[in-house]
Prior knowledge:
The protein has 190 residues and is an alpha+beta fold. The protein has helices at 8-16, 35-48, 86-92, 133-139, 144-147, 177-186, and strands at 20-26, 29-33, 55-57, 62-64, 69-71, 109-113, 128-132. The protein has two domains: 8-78 and 170-186, no CATH class; 86-147, DNA Binding (I), subunit A (Orthogonal Bundle), CATH 1.10.30. It is built from six helices and seven strands; from the N terminus they run H-E-E-H-E-E-E-H-E-E-H-H-H. The longest helix has 14 residues, at 35-48.
Amino acid sequence: xxxxxxxxxxxxxxxxxxxxxxxxxxxxxxxSYDFDQWRELSEFKQxxxxxxxxxxxxxxxxxxVPRIIRLRLFERLPMRNVKFNRxxxxxxDGNRCQYCGKKFPTSELSLDHVxxxxxGGKTTWENIVCxxxxxxxxxxxxxxxxxxxxxxxxxxxxxxxxxxxxxxxSWRYRSWKQFLDHAYWSVELR
Length: 190
């Protein structure tokens, strides 16, 4: 089962520490490799198909960044705590002003407290929305009701990071599809 997307640094660290192994898809078959085996295969891949991989280069060798790793030992699902930051708020709201509904580049958006801080509003997932500059000025230090405005979507804390957006149609990530399809159909709904 797919657990999470990890950085190349984290994946190679787990691989080097023998806590994970690379799962490589070759002609429809899944083959596992430890660190040394993957390093050897990487040398071959670099000579014959370097454009198919992202590479990490060291002083002595280059290694292909693995697309899929499997943990050798696993006890529980990691806790999923979504970071409360601008990027995730913009991603949650789809760069869309939550008052007028128009989509904007992030440079033309601001964050708005639905219940203003001056009226006791907190800086939380449930009280912050994307807002275009025009609507933010119009709303001012009032609640949407006081300003005669309506929220398009009620703000909520996302269960998963909204900024992770993978394009599975990309040839580089086609090996992920089976794992993510399985997760989509078999993960328990809450």
